[in-house]
Amino acid sequence: MTQITFLHGARDRLQAIAAWLANSSMEARPVLVYVPTGERSEQLDRLLWMHPATGFTPHCRADDKLAGESPIVLASDLDSPLHDNCLLNLSDEIPPGFSRFRQLVEIISVEDGDRLPGRERFRFYRERGYPLEARDISGSI
User: Fold this and answer.
1) Which of 23, 46, 102, 119 is spaced 20 to 30 Å from 73 by Cα?
2) The pTM is what?
């Protein structure tokens, strides 16, 4: 069953996601980032090229020829995921087919537009019996 981790309390969701992905990259852990909207995908892509400040976080898009070799892949759909290890959800909806992944990570900011849909997703997973972990990251990432 998919382990679901909610990291909540981020001041800025994209910055927290970039920091979390940088840590995942250093651990060489493959992560598929579900980012269905083009604007958010562009913002995250630009941010990863500048994060951390002294380098960048290696990543590419799912349709890139290097996607199979990149630890972090940005995907606008989950029809043909490259792996089933870790899915990071950057949408405000339940990601389609999330249950085929070993882990699902949700990073939630303090903004109502992000926090309220995040609560609905948490409730959805809890009602279906998924193992949940929730951590406050307001003092870290």
Assistant:
1) 119
2) 0.94
Q: Which of 76, 73, 72 shows the shortest CA–CA distance to 29?
A: 72
Which residues, in sequence order, are CB contacts of 139 under 8 Å at separation 6+?
Answer: none
Q: DSSP letter at 67?
A: T
Question: Tokens 């997703």 identify what position?
Answer: 121
Residue pLDDT tens, the chain, 141 long = 999 999 999 999 999 999 999 999 989 899 999 999 889 999 999 999 987 777 789 999 999 999 999 999 999 999 999 889 999 999 999 999 999 999 999 999 999 999 999 999 999 999 999 999 999 999 875
Q: Six-digit token pair at 22?
A: 């940088």
Alpha helix segments (H runs only) across 65-111: none
Give the domains, in start order, of the chain with CATH numbers.
3-136 (3.40.50.10110)
Q: What tokens were used for 123? A: 């409730």
